[in-house]
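User: structure tokens for this one?
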Amino acid sequence: MSWTRRKPMETMTPAHEGRRLARTLSWPHLLALGVGAIVGTGILTLIGVGADRAGPAVLLSFAIAGAICACAALAYAELSTMMPAAGSAYSYSYAVLGEGVAWIVGWSLILEYSLVVSTVAVGWSGYAAPLLTAIGFPEALTQGPELGGLINLPAIFIIAVVAGLLMLGTHESARINSLLVLVKIATLTLFVAVALPAFDAQHLEPFMPFGFAKHMGPDGVERGVMAAAAIIFFAFYGFDAISTAAEEAKNPDRDLAIGIVGSLIVCTLIYVAVAAAAIGAMPFTRFADSPEPLALILREMGQGGVARIVAIAAVIALPTVLLGFLYGQSRIFLVMARDGFLPRSLARISRRGTPARITAVTALLVAIIAGVLPIDEIAALANAGTLIAFAAVGLCLIVLRRRAPDMKRPFRAPAAWFVGIGAMAGCAYLFVSLPMQTIIACGLWNAVGLIVYIAYGRARATAVLEAGG
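Assistant:
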């Protein structure tokens, strides 16, 4: 039965030279790819959103979201070194859980990556638009129809720039990404250095004003530590993009684990430090509603110059998030095209060793979303798609430990059963902590996905497997 059939692990990486990606990335590139994808608009904006829902206990929300992601990261590290293929959670699910689950995971990853890239591109456009309109650029061309404009050209432009960079060469884009990541880390370090001396422990009282579990507040907003954690989770994922680089890692047995686990550790330390500095410097109620909480805190402290530096650096470094997720999405699309779920002609590799065709198609898709479609209401769907993928990876870890305990594992996740169950249970709890409209929309998205699988994907995948991949 096609729903349960599994793809042999040995066929994951194509043997034909013209279909294989070039191995050009070492562990510093992968570490920078992960940090670049993780640290983005989340830390710049979600501290305010999280504080509004959890109060000072947003620190606990960050810790919970980080712990769940840590379980998922360890599972990713083990599976990616066992199966160094570009498809990430989709490929692992295909080999371990079967084609039907793999399709759902792949469909969910399409949701995650497309919405993240589009949302970040629109966020970048929001910073760039005032500068453009000040020099006479038509305002109607800086925002989509849902905001009264015609098309968001800056968002489309930045997607095109990042896609062009990826098509130019993976190693070249990785070097530029590493430089921008250093700018980003230096900026957040500057914020902590300025804000932390103003730390006042009284700003942490009461620590948990809205309780722990998710509940509906009198103003119609869902509050509690777990409600904040479900939203803050957006600020942590991105390390999964590293697993999509498995086919391009020079030494996947070593480099993938360093990149995945290392990037999450680095980002968790950054997040906790920034959150503690923000909460300690000012009562959370004063920046909870702000779209730019870090800059607001700095201005309130009389550090307007530093606030401008943070804002400018954010604009410069924000494309690293686009690069990480657009990179990841193009690689997942590449593997789905190899498997027959997308036209196989898209799986061709250019002379520079990059999947130029699928990168261009991916960029076109997200550019349409960012340029003309309303995304504010559906951006939270990215969380739902990611949680499904992370839970599947946790399950793959446990199933493989039981099914093939003696199989070579270049990286072994410690306490595998705890890690796998922690990833699944944590993701399930965060999933039900999402707003109900998000859960319903996710269900509808996957219902559409099943129709597409039955009507289009199943027969083509069968033909590919019968032909030997």
